[in-house]
């Protein structure tokens, strides 16, 4: 009985350190970093719209813009020198939105149930749903919380 109590007592500090490490892994980015990424995102939106004007349809993937409309797919400029954050593009066929362009504004940490993202929706409307809640707007982009059940297939 005494050995078991000592084992539990020794495990508690390790669990506390692990919890603190997990919390410290989740990083939020500054308003300046987010604004810079939005500027790059707006350039992508302009190129997507130019593609639409010339081709008569929206691209299925960002890669469809290279090299005719952009030389390469830019990164957000957030977290340079490490794993710089990327833009994600989602073409919607038959829905209200034509496309969404977004990037994450919090690291996706193992064990978290939500992720924050910054989204541009081509309709200009940002409805909340069971999986995504709009918190605030920065220019024409929405800061949203995306719930993990969104990722389940």
Overall description:
The chain is an alpha+beta fold and 153 residues long. The protein has one domain (28-151). The chain has 2 helices and 5 strands. The chain has a 5-stranded antiparallel sheet. A hairpin with a 7-residue loop joins strand 1 and strand 2. The longest helix is centred in the N-terminal third of the chain and has 25 residues, at 31-55. 16% of the residues are buried. The model is unreliable at 4-26 (pLDDT under 50).
Topology:
Layout: H1 2-25, H2 31-55, E1 88-91, E2 99-104, E3 114-121, E4 132-138, E5 141-147
Antiparallel strand pairs: 1-2, 2-3, 3-5, 4-5
Beta-strand percentage range: 15-25%
Q: If you average the pLDDT, what whole number results?
A: 76
What's the count of strands? 5
Query: How helical, in percent, are the residues?
Result: 25-40%
List SSEs in N-to-C order.
HHEEEEE
Q: Which residue ranges are poorly predicted, with pLDDT under 50 across at least 5 consecutive positions?
A: 4-26
Number of domains: 1
SS content category: alpha+beta
Query: Over all CA atoms, what is the radius of gyration?
Result: 20 Å
Task: Give the neighbour order of strands across the main sheet.
Answer: 1-2-3-5-4
**Amino-to-carboxy terminus distance:** 45 Å
Main pleated-sheet profile: 5 strands, antiparallel
């Amino acid at each position: 009985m005494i050995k078991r109590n000592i084992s539990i007592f020794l495990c508690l500090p390790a669990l506390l350190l692990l919890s603190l490490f997990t919390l410290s892994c989740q990083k939020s980015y500054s308003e300046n970093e987010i604004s810079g990424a939005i500027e790059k995102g707006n350039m992508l939106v302009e190129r997507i719209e130019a593609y639409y004007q010339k081709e008569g349809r929206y691209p299925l993937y960002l890669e469809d813009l290279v090299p005719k409309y952009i030389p390469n797919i830019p990164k957000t400029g957030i977290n340079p020198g490490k794993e710089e954050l990327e833009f994600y593009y989602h073409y919607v066929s038959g829905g209200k939105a034509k496309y969404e362009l977004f990037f994450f504004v919090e690291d996706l940490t193992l064990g978290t149930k939500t992720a924050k993202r910054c989204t541009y929706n081509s309709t200009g409307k940002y409805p909340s749903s069971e999986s995504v809640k709009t918190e605030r707007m920065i220019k024409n982009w929405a800061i949203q919380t995306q719930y993990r059940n969104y990722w389940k297939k």
